[in-house]
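Annotated sample (chain length 225).
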Amino acid sequence: MSGPRLSLTDMARRVARDIPSGAYVNLGIGMPTLVGDVVSPEKEIVYHSENGILGMGPAPAPGEGDPELINAGKQPVTLVPGGSFFHHTDSFMMMRGGHIDVTVLGAFQVSETGDLANWATDEVGYPPAVGGAMDLAVGAKRVLVLMTHTTKDGRPKILPACTFPLTAAAVVDRIYTELAVIDVTADGLVVREIVAGLERAELQERTGAQLRFADDVVELVPGAV
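Output written by the structure step:
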């Protein structure tokens, strides 16, 4: 896709700005893990991993990882002081019990009503894998989606209704892409921020669902998010 857009680091930084200090946060596998690398050091965030970690720290230096201490994506991690690890059952009780303040998840599709589809597609050879996404989507107090605006071949991922199997219905609060920041509201999708240099009409063309634009839309400048 040509034209102005945010880098992956820009996108992660924009999500990080919306995570409050003191929050208990779960970052989904893939693109969402980038958020943990760019959160302001002034913020105290407690990271949770669904395979049973609370107080997850940054990745270890090369060659210094413990092969038995990994996140849900099988990447080596560390523990911050006071961090702990525990059984899967306890981890899922935290997720289902409403103890996670924010989850950042990737998505294949999001509907205009906040339905989330992120575990199965129609691609042959792409195995479905739900992991803990369903539990996070319905259990977290706030669900943020970080994804590309369209598929690699240019098809919209923000749609009137998802065509892939749902992870959860009406759970997404905000969508972050390389083109915009969009809120899911009772009145539909509202664009809060748009990448500088992108016309509103072009953003709508790349979106399957109808968009509304806030009165005070903010421009996102690539490299300066």
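Annotation: The mean pLDDT is 94.
Annotation: The chain is about 15% helix and 30% strand.
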